Amino acid sequence: MKEKWLKVIRNQRHEDDWMPTTYSKVCSEHFLTSDVYITKNNLRRLKKTAVPVIKKEEQNTILSSPSSLQRVIVSDGDSIFDTPRKTFLKTKLRKFSLEKRWLQLNNYNLIRKNKRVKEKCNNLKQIVSELKKKKIFYNTSDKRTKS
């Protein structure tokens, strides 16, 4: 079965000596829907007889219009054509993008929290100043200056 996979992937990559690494992956889009089944835990799994394929319409589209490659949007998912380095970099980019988003949200929340604390501080200052005016509250420094 491994040899069938290697033959198909080498054919698609146009590399006769290509060998998979521990980081090599094949996107689920390169399998027939009949080769995929769902487990009891709702996980998608491949049948043992599954072999990656290029679907006919994809093959014809790519061969018929060379400019179609310019419009291809590479997803975050790993592709059968990605090198291990490219897959690693995509994963790292995805991780940094998520981390950036988390930091932005965290920053936004901290700004809001800081604003609320400032408002609370200003409210407390107003209360203290009103209490001072009513002579209900005074600082020890105020007491010394009055005596």
From TrEMBL:
The keyword DNA-binding applies. Keywords: DNA-binding, Metal-binding, Zinc, Zinc-finger. Transmembrane segments: none annotated. InterPro entries: THAP_domain_protein (IPR052224), THAP_Znf (IPR006612). It comes from the Eukaryota. One of its GO terms (molecular function) is zinc ion binding. Residues 1-55 form the THAP-type domain. This is THAP-type domain-containing protein. It comes from Parnassius mnemosyne.
